[in-house]
Amino acid sequence: MRYELYYWPDIQGRGEFVRLALEEGGADYVDVARLPGRGKGIAAMMPFLENNKTGRPPFAPPFLKAGNLLIAQTANILLYLGPRLGLVQKSESSRLWAHQLQLTIADFVGEVHDVHHPIAGSLYYHQQKREAKRRAGYFTGERIPKFLDYFEGVLAGNPKGSRYMLGRTFSYVDLSIFQIIAGLRYAFPKTMKKWEPKYPGLAALHDKVTARPNIAAYLASRRRIPFNKYGIFRHYPELDTQN
């Protein structure tokens, strides 16, 4: 099957969690909004968002077209792709545990976004800088360690000899943890310099994912959009408050 991914063309954002899974799984896919030409780009995405022909429209990108299915929400897309790309075991308990972890990652990603947009997504960052700076203090001092403590604890609680979030089996959750660590390092380098020594398991997992052949090739390619000040992980020095 050839998958069609619909997401904004110039940012990693939530779509990157899906891209990583597609790349690692060696899927045949097209990143539709990044295609040139008439009817491509963002224009190709809008009909799905602007009409209700299917009766099951997505609220927002990312969404994935897989045959006759149109699947939205990052964690939901990964729930679908995981067993099909060999990125989760097919047992119900494994799939539900992976989904639970991915939903927790989604909560974390939402909090990352709200650091630089604490009042409204419709306002520019410069219109809410004072509120963002205050929120950043709580996020870097309390919320980052809260989430990373949890994920490090999941790793530590796995059977001896396990290397991954689900134990001995690599999954899409490991790819998402990689993206979280990479994004936090970009957005909050001072903060991560302080906190990261407490989480050797997560740091090691990030490096394991980086070294996987399909991911290494992807990261070195033009398909990987660089971090920038338009995505979820944004580096504003004034928000990186930990020294």
Walkthrough of the structure:
The chain is of the alpha+beta class. The chain has a domain at 92-212: Glutathione S-transferase Yfyf (Class Pi), Chain A, domain 2, CATH 1.20.1050.10. Helix content is 51%, strand content 7%. The protein has nine helices and four strands; from the N terminus they run E-H-E-H-E-E-H-H-H-H-H-H-H. The protein has helices spanning 15-24, 42-50, 74-84, 92-116, 129-156, 172-187, 189-195, 200-211, 213-219, and strands spanning 2-6, 28-31, 63-66, 69-72. Helix 1 links the parallel strand 1 (2-6) and strand 2. Helix 4 runs antiparallel to helix 5. The chain is globular. The model has no long low-confidence stretch (mean pLDDT 94).
Topology:
Blueprint: E1 2-6, H1 15-24, E2 28-31, H2 42-50, E3 63-66, E4 69-72, H3 74-84, H4 92-116, H5 129-156, H6 172-187, H7 189-195, H8 200-211, H9 213-219
Parallel strand pairs: 1-2
Antiparallel strand pairs: 1-3, 3-4
Helix pairs in contact: 1-3, 1-6, 3-4, 4-5, 4-6, 6-7, 6-8
Provide keyphrases for this structure:
4 strands; alpha+beta; Glutathione S-transferase Yfyf (Class Pi), Chain A, domain 2; 243 residues
**Ends: how far apart?**
49 Å
Contiguous runs where pLDDT drops below 50 for at least 5 residues: none
Number of strands: 4
Global shape? globular
Rg (C-alpha, Å): 18 Å
Per the CATH scheme, the topology name of the domain at 92-212 is Glutathione S-transferase Yfyf (Class Pi), Chain A, domain 2
In the CATH hierarchy, what is the architecture of the domain at 92-212 at level 2?
A: Up-down Bundle
**Alpha plus pi helix count:** 9
Overall SS class: alpha+beta
Q: Describe the strand arrangement of the main beta sheet, using strand numbers.
A: 2-1-3-4
